[in-house]
Amino acid sequence: AIDNTLKTMDVEKIGRVMDKFESNFEDLDVRTAYMDTAIDNTTAATTPESEVSELMQMVADEHGLALAGELDEAGIVSTKTPASKNKNTESDLEARFAALNQ
User: Fold this and answer.
1) Interatomic CA distance for residues 50 and 48, integer angstroms
2) Which of 18, 14, 86 is nearest to 5 (CA)?
3) Closest among 4, 92, 11 to 100, alpha carbons compared
4) Which residue would you say has higher pLDDT here, 35 or 47?
5) Would you call 102 exposed, middle or buried from its count of C-beta atoms within 10 A (0-12, 13-18, 19+)?
6) Which residue from 22, 4, 23 is spatially nearest to 13, judged by alpha carbons?
7) Please, what sign has the CA dihedral across residues 50, 52, 55, 59?
8) pLDDT tens, residue by residue, 36-83
9) What global pTM score does this model have?
10) If 0-12 CB within 10 Å is exposed, 13-18 middle and 19+ buried, where does residue 3 land?
């Protein structure tokens, strides 16, 4: 439809086609949001908590990690590393790099 409209170069037709496109796009956006919500609710309701816990434990066992209550006890964990550790690491890396260049 847009190719035919562009060939005629009728500004009013182009405007109507673009308005229709925008309307269809907004409808699709609403439908997508509705489906996302419905799927999320269904998935959350159908996945038993015990299966999730078993899967987490299985992965932890495979990688030699201990999970028993540690997630609950962790609380808020900082993502920053101490400044002194970074400086030591940087100097170690610089020394290793210098040794490789010699």
Assistant:
1) 5
2) 14
3) 92
4) 35
5) exposed
6) 4
7) negative
8) 888 888 776 677 778 888 888 888 888 777 655 566 666 665 666 655
9) 0.35
10) exposed
